[in-house]
Design a protein that fits this description.
The complex is a heterotrimer of chains A (131), B (215) and C (667). Chain A contains three helices and no strands. With 131 residues, chain A is mainly α. In chain A, helix 1 runs antiparallel to helix 2. Chain A starts with 27 loop residues before the first helix and ends in an 8-residue tail after the last helix. Chain B has 215 residues and is mostly helical. Helix content of chain B is 78%, strand content 0%. Chain B contains six helices and no strands. Chain C starts with 14 loop residues before the first helix and ends in a 5-residue tail after the last helix. The chains are: A mainly alpha (131), B mainly alpha (215), C mainly alpha (667). Chains in contact: A-B, A-C, B-C. At the A-B interface, helix 1, helix 2 and helix 3 of A face helix 1, helix 3 and helix 6 of B.
Amino acid sequence: MSDTDARLHLHHASDHAPGDEPVSGHEIAEGLLGYIVGLFLAALITAVAFFLVGTSLVWQPSIPVALLVLAVAQMGVHLVFFLHITTGPDNYNNVLALAFGVLIVGLIIVGSMWIMTNMNHNMMPMNMMHM
Amino acid sequence: MSIAARTTAVGLGGEGAAPSVPHELSELAQKRVIVGYGFWIFLLSDIVMFSTFFAAYAVLVNETAGGPSGRDLFHLDVVAFETAFLLLSSFACGVASIGARAHRDTMYYGAMAVTALLGAGFLFLEVHEFVGMIGIGAGPQRSAFLSAFFTLVGCHGLHVTLGLMWLLTMMAQVFAKGYRPDILRRVLCFALFWHTLDIIWVAIFTVVYLLGVVV
Amino acid sequence: MLGKLTWADIPLDQPIPLIAGVGAFSIVGLVVIYVLLKGWGPYLWREWITSVDHKHIGVMYVFLAAVMLLRGFVDAIMMRSQQALAFQAPGYLPPDHYDQIFAAHGTLMIFFVAMAFVIGLINIVVPLQLGVRDVAFPTLNSVSFWLTATGALLINISLVVGEFSHVGWLPFPPLSELRYSPGVGMDYYLWSLQISGVGTLLTGVNFVTTILKLHAPGMTYMRMPVFCWTAFASMLLIVAAFPVLTATLAMLLLDRYLGFHFFTNEAGGNVMMFNNLIWIWGHPEVYILVLPAFGVFSEVFSTYSGKPLFGYRSMVAATMVICILSFTVWLHHFFTMGAGADVNAVFGILSMIIAVPTGVKVFNWMFTMYGGRVRYASPMYWGIGFIVTIIIAGMTGVLLAVPPADFLLHNSLFLVAHFHNVIIGAILFGMFAGYTYWFPKAFGFRLDERLGKAAFWCWFVGFYLAFMPLYVVGLMGMTRRMQHYDNPAWYPWLLVAAAGAAVILVGIGFQIAQLVVSIRNREELRDTTGDPWDGRALEWSTSSPPPPFNFAVLPHVEGTDAYWLMKQRARERGAPEPEPAYQDIELPRNSATGFVCAFFAAILGFSLIWQIWWLAALAFVGAFATFVVFAWRDRTEYRIPAAEVARIDRENRAARRLALAQMEPAE
């Protein structure tokens, strides 16, 4: 029917798309299980995060750091169980792209905050009074 | 959106029969990889765009210009509901993509409808929050902090709105065309989009709402 | 009903832009009428406007770049002549108009000349070099092009309806805020960049996917030609940097349209944050443009030296290092903004480090020529001119990367000279080299060499005449964008600079003549084999111009310089490869999606600029409907039967066999 000579040659024959379930589409139960585990973990982390904000049981200065750690953990859960970005060999390209994205996001946010904070200290704008 | 542009003969013109020749199966699989990867790259660029809004928010978060701060404005109970809606809709979206791959009508349409309802519920809560804030004079024009807040959270809300339009289009497409390989690739992309919106929401509820109340 | 738009917005009081605008649009109108009268409309519609073939889209990009280059160059001539006349005099351009000219010049040259040229060449060449039939998403590619064209159209409409930005090629607040730029000029700038920015981002997504996922059999990453690597780095930077531009301009739009306070002076807005955000995009943008130019030169030096590129692996590594490093230096554009010494020092050092991989590249190019059988064709002229020029640009760049020096040179004409040194000396020379080098591939005949060399010498000499004086007056303290001045020490230098612009004008004249003469003599200049320069990469292994399917059978790649290896083998064998078994080929069908979508985008942009909200809503619905209609198609491909593939391929094989017979046996 179409040209047998594979016109799109891929580097890894077993390469797969991000978001694809590794199991075949017909194994519904197995696929569902992944999403249920993901939902459970994500809900748990979210609950802990919201609990931390309301509680006085935890040493207060540690809460912001804890919240950020929980957020990163939850993003990891979403990536693995919902988007199926794992570290398997067939996922190499997807993970590499994600790593590049994370690097850029980090540079933008950390760089901007560093530059702007440093400049605000250096230049002492008028509204420093309330700080 | 040119996802359909390279469909093979298999499944053209609504023949829709399962591919019988092995190499065509693999070519379709390759196409699925290419489309998924391309969309993944697009999503990463979208995440970079959000990171710019996050950076602006982080720089401007204390610039309240004498107006209300996050601590005065945020209602964490509403945020908890929004979070729950979005997380459940992300799960429902996952179920829908399994249903699509398995060609199960009830599973696909049912889960997509649930996804849409939960997404609409999220949007309703968000709009309600925005309207309430504007009503008490805490609109985006009030201060740089509020400008950054409305832009960051509003941009996410805009994505959810576009996602809903896409979702309804995908339900209509499967209804009209069946589970054709090119349609299934679009379902895959939609699912990626929807899950990514939830990841961005995790960053928003943590950085904006929870830290806004704590710090 | 029509928002802010009234008859008063037609600038009848300003003759220069009005006459120029009316002139330009009537020329375009006449061309359109001529084309329609000749009956070429259906051909244009079928083969170009709705084409999703990467080669045709690439040619349209280059055409857009060439037209916009002329427009931008007219602006340049006006600025140079204004500064030559405005010594203790007002000159002929009023300040308001002069401001619009330098803003339009920069905007057009960066976004619609350099970007379009780079993306055009990448479109034409990369799929051929990878040995595949098209890009990953062909229709998306067409959408990208037409959105870019929409942005260019909107900027040119501003000549006749309303005004253009007065602020410069980057809209720095607070000047760009509503209070200080109340007119629509700023909105023209912002919306045309937002629309074309979407197109550029989609191109980036498309080519990152293409280069990583589509390859001929055996074309591993480390066998890809260096141009593909540089295109990959450039497209990766687009994907990472253009969202930042979109977000930053969106913030400015929100400030202007809805009264937000991102960059305002009041309510806690932070003007400096704009500098920070725009340069997070702005610095990688330089490398988005220059890396593909480096790639072109890598191809050119290796082909015309008859040698493999020296240090292929180090070239790839240098490209990727520059790609990442370019994201870590943005603060060097605003050393003077007020950050502390520690921040400035870190970014200064990082900026200087970029010179290292770039230096690696320069040495690699020179070692490629060393010991080779160098043929001095005109792409080599551009190449050698580039090496000399880029070294000066690099050294003045390292100078500017030293924060204390930058405090003296910031915003001076020294800076202007430096970045023109990069953009003309590296990017534009690279694009012209690529244009000459790949012209026969795109059109099937070569460009006239004599006129090409004449054009090079005019550009080369003209560039030095025009910009070396700017280094000097910059060191003397002349700031950029001065409409008039009264320092007698600057005056002679600015006269020289104006003369340099005139010499470049002659160069452009030679390029136009070269195109006309080459078209007229196309039969003598015909490239029958598809390999006019004894090339090394896969694009030369197919006919010129390539058939719609590029390769009758996908080539099997066995190393770097894939086509060179094939030719070696054929020479040893004394015969070309045996004829393959031809099969039907399926290709994506044409689609008007890109054009229709751009039509709605143009209306959307125009109505947003003039705040005609109902029309904007209508246009958005139209664009969405276009996509849905596109998504509803059932037949997305057409088939070329095996017999037709065989007929086309046999013609080319016969020509190559003839060429092989005339060649010496294997050395």
